[in-house]
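Technical annex, item 7. During the second reporting period the consortium partners agreed on a shared format for inverse folding records so that results from different sites could be compared directly. Each record opens with the tokenized structure and is followed by the designed sequence. A conforming record, contributed by the partner at site C, is shown below for reference.
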């Protein structure tokens, strides 16, 4: 089932995927989702925030059990982060149908919009809007690298940007949410288990830091006369690494804009994006506060720690694990399941082993047999939760 998705948004030069929200690739992925829903006779809905829902049964009668993930990607990402959860959701439904199961509750497959925030900088946009975790005005005004706002690109995609925002009606259809995801580390490899269950998501955030200087000629400007913003930028990157090591957290500068961007000119401005995460919110906050001293820092997103519902977590581990309960793992990656949990929806996650341990890169992988184990585990979980 992943096969028809494999060509969408693929960069042939690298094998990586570029699937920005509301891009052409995203529209193709949405069509694929609609086709999968139609093929199964599911009731397809797109909510005001662009999230897609495919229902087996009517959630107006009784809140449903929902599973799914996202189809957008980080830039140059792998084939599994997001799509594996959506494909597995449809496959688990098929499995239930083939076994003649008639669930007592409606079952939904969801594809959340713009989970990665690759284009506008804020991750989990679809679930944040749905739950009211981000204000529509702020979301609509966010710009991409071309200067287009979210409002612009949604309008161009034929959506109604001014209708976005907290959607209680849709939220009320979600009784429980379970997201299956490729593991983004090596814990399941180490434990020799194909499927795990999430315990918690680390608190994490993104900050934009702007360094301003004076653009000038690279050959004729004496070193003493320069105001080069690249130098404080470089010091910040090293300080982030040292501070993270000291505090036992992680910090990453993965995106930088240098303008005007001439090899033969001192830059006038460097904009950097800092991503910092850790088990303890205070450590992350302190690291950023220390780095931010005297700098122009803007918080783009902050996601507090998520501790998944313990009863649901243990139930998932029992049902998904077979003879021995599935291992329970914390993660440093953000997910829509975390946003839903923070909004009070009982939510949990299943992870599928990734032999490379690598993610947000084309090297991300999952073996066919482990994907199948994930689908079987998810089907058991859905059947159990639908009782
Ligand atoms: C999204 O995948 C994130 O954790 O940044
Ligand atoms: Mn991701
Ligand atoms: Mn993901
Ligand atoms: Mn994520």
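Designed sequence (site C submission):
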């Amino acid at each position: 089932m992943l096969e028809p998705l494999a060509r969408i948004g693929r960069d042939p030069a690298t094998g990586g995927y570029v699937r920005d929200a509301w891009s052409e690739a995203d529209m193709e992925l949405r069509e694929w989702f609609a086709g999968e829903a139609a093929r199964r006779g599911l009731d397809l809905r797109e909510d005001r925030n662009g999230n897609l829902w495919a229902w087996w049964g009517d959630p107006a009668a009784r809140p449903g059990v929902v599973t799914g993930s996202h189809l957008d990607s980080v830039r140059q990402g792998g084939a599994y982060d997001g799509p594996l959860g959506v494909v597995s959701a449809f496959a688990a439904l098929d499995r239930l149908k083939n076994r003649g199961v008639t669930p007592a509750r409606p079952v939904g497959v969801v594809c959340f919009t713009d989970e990665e925030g690759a284009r506008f900088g804020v991750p989990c946009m679809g679930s944040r809007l749905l739950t009211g975790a981000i204000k529509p005005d702020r979301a609509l005004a966010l710009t991409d690298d071309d200067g287009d706002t979210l409002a612009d690109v949604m309008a161009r995609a034929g959506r109604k940007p001014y209708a976005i925002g907290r959607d209680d009606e849709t939220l009320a259809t979600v009784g429980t949410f379970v997201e299956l995801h490729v593991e983004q580390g090596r814990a399941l490899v180490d434990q020799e288990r194909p499927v795990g269950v999430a315990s918690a998501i680390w608190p994490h955030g993104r900050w934009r830091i702007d360094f301003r200087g004076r653009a000038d000629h690279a050959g004729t400007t004496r070193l003493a006369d320069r105001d080069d913003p690249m130098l404080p930028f470089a010091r910040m990157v090293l300080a982030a690494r040292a501070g993270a090591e000291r505090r036992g957290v992680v910090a990453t500068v993965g995106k930088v804009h240098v303008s005007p961007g001439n090899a033969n000119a001192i830059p006038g401005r460097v904009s950097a994006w800092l991503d910092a995460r850790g088990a303890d919110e205070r450590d992350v906050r302190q690291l950023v506060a220390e780095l931010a001293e005297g700098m122009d820092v803007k918080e783009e997103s902050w996601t507090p720690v998520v501790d998944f519902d313990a009863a649901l977590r243990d139930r998932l581990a029992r049902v998904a694990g077979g003879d021995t309960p599935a291992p329970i793992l914390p993660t440093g990656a953000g997910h829509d399941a975390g946003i839903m949990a923070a909004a009070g929806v009982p939510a949990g996650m299943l992870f599928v082993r990734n032999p490379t341990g690598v993610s947000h890169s084309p090297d991300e992988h999952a073996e066919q047999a482990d994907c199948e184990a994930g689908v079987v585990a998810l089907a058991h979980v859905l059947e159990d939760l639908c009782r």
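Residues 150 and 239 are 33 Å apart (CA to CA). The longest strand covers residues 250-259. All partners now use this format for quarterly exchanges.
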